[in-house]
Amino acid sequence: MGKPRWRDSLQSGKRTYVTVVRVAPSILSADLGRLADEVRAAEAAGADWIHVDVMDGRFVPNITFGPGIVRAVRAATRLPIDVHLMIVEPERHLAAFADAGADGLSVHVEACTHLQRTLHSIRELGKRAGAVLNPHTSEESIRYVLADLDLVLLMTVNPGFGGQAFLPHVVPKIARVRTLIDDGGHPIDLEVDGGIAEETTGIVVDAGARVLVAGNAVFAQPDRAAAIRALRAAAK
Ligand code: DX5
Ligand code: ZN
Question: What does pLDDT average to over the chain?
Fold first, then answer.
């Protein structure tokens, strides 16, 4: 993911403010029998990152992907791979996902007894460090690790499955984390995940989100380029 900097950019001349958002399609909703094709299609459709949802059947009820799938995604695209670890004891698996080609590794704060140590370990592996908050988890859980973070991911559904309904009660937390990040002065991406679609994009972007994970809103649509364009349009 290089050195990303999120900024609201002024389109001079047109006198309109354009909010720059990135779209990260989640392969959870892709046709897994055609995974490489699906990833290439998302890239061709204008995706910014590819989001990989790793689930262990313990932290969440569902089981999905391991490092082998990240390796397969890596072979199919040059886009940054955004790995969302919904697993207990994520520190045990960081090196394997880093070796497989992840660019960012995000761990749930609820799964980390020593969050700062785990975030530090991710950066030691040369990867971008992310913290994920479940819908009920307070933004206070990241206040004292802001310097160790490259990304905050706020769940707008309970993690575990694609295609769930957006939880509007998380919106005020998005705004509070936006303030926390801006006040802290660290270049941290603010990402949201779950139920993101045309109808919810405006709400989360207004609140301060700048990276949109989208499973069904991209991969369940026949025209992925149109789907990504629609999300970007809804963000403005
Ligand atoms: C849910 C995952 C999400 C999921 C989103 O636990 O973390 O990334 O793929 O799917 P949609 O966008 O369909 O809600
Ligand atoms: Zn996710």
Answer: 94
